[in-house]
């Protein structure tokens, strides 16, 4: 069987081809799955999509009409998938429920330290042979307080690194993680976490209940010199409210690997066109903000796990099995 994979980067292609070798042929495309590209999948029973794919009802109907019966999404989040329509159409949808939490946790810390120690500004200066230290002063993390919003696998990995720095640990989640408690984490309500933390890192999924969990009210509660990091989902942060606070001179730094309106922008080269998103354009101009393009998961270890799980999801579908990765029934219980 030949599988069609959308949104495959040059780094991923040899890994995907190797993982499926001897089992299935795979056609890799660098374009993302959307309303415009969905017709390409006509005749393919199995389609694999990437993290920023558009799997709205219209796209799913186009795929189903073309003969697609299974979608293997190469990511954990599935807020981009209309699962109700998928079930109505009888489409099997699989995702990757787990991959290396260290990839995202380590990158979140990379963002935190980049804004704290002004790494991007310093690097840009030295390229111009400007070796002054003015404006580059950071802060020690030891002894300061970190607030971890979401203490699942990634949040726990982030917390372990914070513990290594010698930080005071605050956490918020719907359930406490015993491993984090053992490290000395104190669970508090969100308002106390926002008000008390020198560094806040987001590791919760994007749900209706967490959409804009960092909104105007939460931002007002934060310390003026706090650092905010989001390596989870863009919709967790009300970006317009964040820009308002940044314009007033608040926050030591903000590190964002995700953006709520990133679809159609991230993973693409927009350097030669006019980007009409005024909010993103404004955000990038702040000297204390670092924006990266949804790359926290992008390590050899994590991507290899994602691909191996995708191969397993395809095998489960063909065998009529369901697993923890199955979002829409595979036709067998």
CATH class of the largest domain: Alpha Beta
Q: Sketch the topology as an H/E string, one letter per element.
A: EHEEHEHEHHEHEHEHEHEHEHEHE
Give the total of domains.
Answer: 2
CATH topology of the largest domain: Rossmann fold
Named CATH architecture of the largest domain: 3-Layer(aba) Sandwich
**Helical content band:** 25-40%
For the record, what is the CATH homologous superfamily label of the largest domain?
A: NAD(P)-binding Rossmann-like Domain
From the N-terminal CA to the C-terminal CA, the straight-line distance is 24 Å
What's the average pLDDT? 95
Spatial ordering of strands, largest sheet = 8-7-6-9-10-11-12
Helices, by number, come to: 12
Portion of residues in beta strands equals: 5-15%
Sequence-ordered SSE layout with sheet pairings:
Layout: E1 2-5, H1 12-20, E2 25-28, E3 46-49, H2 57-65, E4 70-73, H3 83-89, E5 92-94, H4 101-116, H5 119-127, E6 145-149, H6 153-165, E7 168-172, H7 178-182, E8 186-187, H8 190-196, E9 199-202, H9 216-221, E10 227-230, H10 239-247, E11 253-256, H11 278-285, E12 289-291, H12 300-319, E13 326-328
Parallel strand pairs: 1-2, 1-3, 3-4, 4-5, 6-7, 6-9, 7-8, 9-10, 10-11, 11-12
Antiparallel strand pairs: 5-13
Helix pairs in contact: 1-12, 2-3, 4-6
Describe this structure in words.
This protein is an alpha/beta fold and about 325 residues long. The chain folds into two domains: about 1-100 and about 300-330, 3-Layer(aba) Sandwich (Rossmann fold); about 100-290, Rossmann fold, CATH 3.40.50. The chain contains twelve helices and 13 strands. It has helices spanning about 10-20, 55-65, 85-90, 100-115, 120-125, 155-165, 180, 190-195, 215-220, 240-245, 280-285, 300-320; strands spanning about 1-5, 25-30, 45-50, 70-75, 90-95, 145-150, 170, 185, 200, 225-230, 255, 290, 325-330. The strands form two sheets. It has a seven-stranded parallel beta sheet, sandwiched between helices. Strands 2-1-3-4-5-13 form a six-stranded mixed beta sheet. Helix 4 (about 100-115) crosses helix 6 (about 155-165). The radius of gyration is 21 Å and the shape is globular.
């Amino acid at each position: 069987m030949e599988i069609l994979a959308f949104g495959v980067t040059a780094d991923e292609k040899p890994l995907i081809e190797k993982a499926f070798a001897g089992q299935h042929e795979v056609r890799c495309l660098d374009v993302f799955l959307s309303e415009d590209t969905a017709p390409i999948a006509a005749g393919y029973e199995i389609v694999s999509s990437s993290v920023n794919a558009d799997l709205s009802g219209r796209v799913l109907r186009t795929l189903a009409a073309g003969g697609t019966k299974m979608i293997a999404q190469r990511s954990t989040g599935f807020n981009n998938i209309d699962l109700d329509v998928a079930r109505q159409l009888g489409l099997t949808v699989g995702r990757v429920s787990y991959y290396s939490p260290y990839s995202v946790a380590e990158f979140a810390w990379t963002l935190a330290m980049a804004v704290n120690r002004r790494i991007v500004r310093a690097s840009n200066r030295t390229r111009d042979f400007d070796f002054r230290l003015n404006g580059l002063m950071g802060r020690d993390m030891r002894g300061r307080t970190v607030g971890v919003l979401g203490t699942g696998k990634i949040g726990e990995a982030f917390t372990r690194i914070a513990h290594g720095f010698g930080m005071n640990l605050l956490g918020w989640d719907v359930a406490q993680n015993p491993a984090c408690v053992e490290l000395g984490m104190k669970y508090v309500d969100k308002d106390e976490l926002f008000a008390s933390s020198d560094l806040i890192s987001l590791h919760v999924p994007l749900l209706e209940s967490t959409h804009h969990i960092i909104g105007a009210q939460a931002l007002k509660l934060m310390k003026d010199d706090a650092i905010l990091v989001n390596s989870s989902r863009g919709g967790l942060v009300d970006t317009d409210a964040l820009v308002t606070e940044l314009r007033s001179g608040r926050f030591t730094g903000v590190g964002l690997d995700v953006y709520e309106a990133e679809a159609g922008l991230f993973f693409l080269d927009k350097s030669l066109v006019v980007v009409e998103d005024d909010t993103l354009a404004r955000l990038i101009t702040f000297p204390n903000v670092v924006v990266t393009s949804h790359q926290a998961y992008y390590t050899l270890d994590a991507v290899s796990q994602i691909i191996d799980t995708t191969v397993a999801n395809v095998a489960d579908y063909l065998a009529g099995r369901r697993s923890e990765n199955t979002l829409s029934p595979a036709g067998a219980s």
